[in-house]
Amino acid sequence: MTEPDWKIAKNKLDKLSLGERRKLYKTNDYVIIDVVDPWFFHVLKDKSIRTKKHTLDDVTEFKKYKINAALNEDLAKKVSIFKGDITKLEVDAIVNAANSFLRAGGGVDGAIHRGAGPLLQEECNTLGGCPTGDAKITCGYSLPAKYVIHTVGPQDGSPAKLESCYEKCLSFQEEYNLRSIAFPCISTGIYGFPNRLAAHIALRNARKFLEKNKSMERIIFCTFMPIDVEIYETLLQMYFPVPHCDDDTTAPN
User: Fold this and answer.
1) Where along the sequence do coiled-coil regions lie (predicted)?
2) 166 touches 239 (CB < 8 A)
3) What are the residues whose beta carbons fall under 8 Å from the beta carbon of 150, sequence distance 6 or more?
4) pTM above the 0.90 mark?
5) Angle between helices 195-212 and 226-239 (to 10 degrees)
6) Which contacts of 115-118 are long-range, i.e. CB under 8 A and separated by 24 or more positions?
7) Torsion angle in degrees (nearest 10) through CA of 7, 11, 14, 20
8) What is the largest CA-CA distance in the chain?
9) How far is Cα 195 from Cα 36, in angstroms, rounded to an integer?
């Protein structure tokens, strides 16, 4: 029986070197991970970030997870904020804010499908959809990312289901040997999840994961909208404080 085109392409891509894969990218202006500053250096370069202060509500949400302060400097070098197009990132995996049918839609979902090409939809069609809060993984095809992790965010404002999205996406790390992963702002678009609470959930889960998984080298948060840039630059100071800054923007006790 002849294998489907998506499976043939997927098997071929798995055997290619990085240089060979680069020749197949649909985009020429891909972004290598080395040019995306880790948060640690981003803060030191841009002192204006330190003027962005958290609120009392932020402190309440932050206290739901107690960070291991001894790891602050190391972990601040393992997260990044990227103000741009997630489909341009050359990372092991990018996360797609998908719908439950795993069909190409609008926004980030549509952009990822366009960047990957039609074989992505063909593989998605074999997965039987995806429940809210769960995640499925596919090849990245013509994207600079090796894999696409499709997760379905909540439409009912459920923090538990959004938390599950991040947990399920990160759970692929060991099996697929992921060293880098990029997240969009899941559920904050047409699904209407509050941007600030969504960022707390994303950062809390990233911090929790990195404290226990040393092999993950970088988690990138893609912030396309100005409101998300502002929120993440504020809250990253809490969840991933940079030691030795000459102000008081370290995480609250």
Assistant:
1) none
2) no
3) 95, 96, 98, 102, 124, 130, 135, 136, 137, 138
4) yes
5) 40
6) 115/26, 115/27, 115/87, 115/142, 115/143, 116/26, 116/140, 116/141, 116/142, 116/143, 116/148, 117/26, 117/141, 117/142
7) -100
8) 66
9) 23
- Helices 195-212, 159-170: inter-axial angle, 10-degree rounding: 40
Dihedral of CA 163/31/84/45: which sign? positive
Helices (H), 142-250: 159-170, 195-212, 226-239
Cα atoms in the 13 Å half-sphere on the side-chain side of 67: 28
Residue 18's Cβ-count burial label (10 Å; 0-12, 13-18, 19+) is exposed
Token pair of 78 as six digits: 């393992």
Nearest to 180 by CA among 139, 144, 210, 220: 220
How far apart are alpha carbons 76 and 38 in whole angstroms? 7
The Cα–Cα gap between 236 and 37 comes to 14
